[in-house]
Design goal:
The chain has a 5-stranded mixed β-sheet, covered by helices on one side. Strands 1-2 form a two-stranded antiparallel sheet. Helices cover 59% and strands 11% of the residues. It is of the alpha+beta class. Helix 4 runs antiparallel to helix 5, helix 7 runs antiparallel to helix 8 and helix 7 runs parallel beside helix 10. The longest helix is centred in the middle third of the chain and has 81 residues. A hairpin with a 2-residue loop joins strand 1 and strand 2.
Length: 418
């Protein structure tokens, strides 16, 4: 257990914190205070004179002092065994009321014990125990006390026991309310932390998809152009020089996009953070030109005039075209051609990428077939699914491959740009 730090605050605050850390010492102080009050009360005679109570006209007996000390000493254990302490103090109070013609105010210890029971148990138990204690002590005081049954001392026993039970129940209710509010605040804090963790995970996944798309696209172009340069280096140096220029341009574009993507992880005030907008269908022609320079003929058909997509949908459409054409360049063969179409259909936009790759060979047995779709197709499906759209990616009849994504014009955040 870690030792408590140095005490701070006012003397009252320091004393309160110390007693909370040492409850047995606090109970001992309560017991001493109750004993002092009972001894002082035993010297008081409420009917000492016609003018009112007097002090010092009577003195407690030796047996009364012993009983008061026993009742006060029992209060030291009131937290650990509240019901036992209540039963003991009630018993000695009854004994004092029945046996002595001038009983000592031992009922004070029973009042404190009843308060403890009410503060540490539930409300039904408080009602049952409180009513039983009130009835027993009041009846004993009225039946065996030296004063008439209607005397104020007897009514005082009834009032003090009732107030002790009510005060203990109120304290218990307040503690329960504070505990409930504390637990609710802690639960809300945990919920905020879980939500923040979920958003961080989603952001990491999105950045990972962007990095995959950027790297896969540009590295594929670099690989193709480097192969062309190596093939024609000796016989056609001019074409090799052109291929190397494409390699340089593709690598520069890859570095720029990587810098922009990784820059999203910087702090908001970082001056090196990117300020250019994310790519979208507005720069689709530049993307297709990069593939054409790499030797992949690409035809474009668009029917989305006047359509401005939300930023998330626009970026997803761009990345889908980029990844689909990268797959065509990598897997469709050297003579493949591609077609890209962007069409607005109602409240959606359809992105379709077709290629005329060589017909597939005779498929192996089902048990030997590799799983369809790599990280590129998986990333496209995740992008489309996150926006509430659908993605179809499958071989075409007679050869080639077809990728079609249907994206909503309205993003899931409610942003509508149509």
């Amino acid at each position: 257990m870690t030792p408590p730090g140095p005490a701070t605050g006012t003397p009252y605050v320091r004393a309160r914190d110390w007693f909370r850390a040492h409850p047995l010492a606090f109970d001992a102080v309560i017991a001493v205070g109750a004993l002092v009050a009972m001894v002082a009360g035993s010297f008081t005679d409420p009917h000492g004179s016609p003018d009112g109570p007097t002090f010092g006209d009577k003195a407690p007996s030796a047996w009364g002092v012993v009983v008061m000390i026993a009742g006060a000493a029992a209060l030291v254990c009131r937290r650990r065994k509240p019901f036992a302490v209540l039963a003991f103090t009630v018993a000695i109070t009854l004994f004092e009321l029945i046996d002595d013609n001038r009983p000592a105010p031992i009922a004070m210890s029973a009042v404190i014990a009843l308060y403890t029971v009410a503060a540490r148990t539930d409300r039904p138990t408080t009602w049952r125990v409180g009513l039983a204690t009130m009835a027993v002590l009041t009846a004993a005081a009225m039946a065996f006390g030296p004063t008439p049954w209607y005397a104020q001392e007897n009514l005082g026993v009834f009032a003090w026991t009732g107030m002790a039970a009510a005060a203990g129940d109120a304290v218990r209710s307040r503690r329960a309310f504070i505990d409930a509010m504390t637990e609710r605040a802690e639960r809300a804090e945990r919920t905020r932390e879980e939500e923040a963790g979920r958003r961080v995970a989603e952001e990491r996944l999105r950045i990972a998809r962007d990095l995959h798309d950027v790297v896969a696209h540009h590295i594929a172009l670099v690989n193709v152009q480097a192969g062309v340069a190596a093939h024609v280096m000796d016989k056609r140096p001019d074409q090799a020089k052109e291929a190397l220029a494409h390699v340089r341009e593709a690598s520069r574009s890859a570095l720029d996009e990587l810098r922009a993507t990784v820059g999203l992880l910087r702090q908001s005030g970082d001056p090196e953070a990117p300020t250019e907008p994310a790519p979208g269908l507005a720069v689709l022609d530049g993307l297709l030109d990069s593939f054409r320079k790499a030797g992949l003929p690409v035809a474009l058909a668009r029917a989305d005039e006047g359509l401005t997509l939300p930023a998330t949908v626009d970026l997803a459409a761009y990345r889908i075209v980029q990844e689909a054409l990268t797959n065509v360049r990598k897997h469709a063969g050297p003579d493949a051609k591609a077609e890209v179409s962007v069409v607005k259909v109602g409240r959606t936009v359809e992105i379709t990428v077709l290629d005329n790759g060589a017909p597939p060979a005779v498929p192996p047995p089902a048990a030997e077939q590799p799983p369809v779709g790599g990280h590129g197709l998986l990333g496209m499906r995740e992008r489309v699914g996150a926006l509430g759209g659908t993605l179809t990616a499958a071989p075409r009849y007679g050869g080639g491959f077809r990728v079609q994504a249907i994206l909503p014009v309205t993003s899931r955040t409610g942003e509508d740009r149509a």
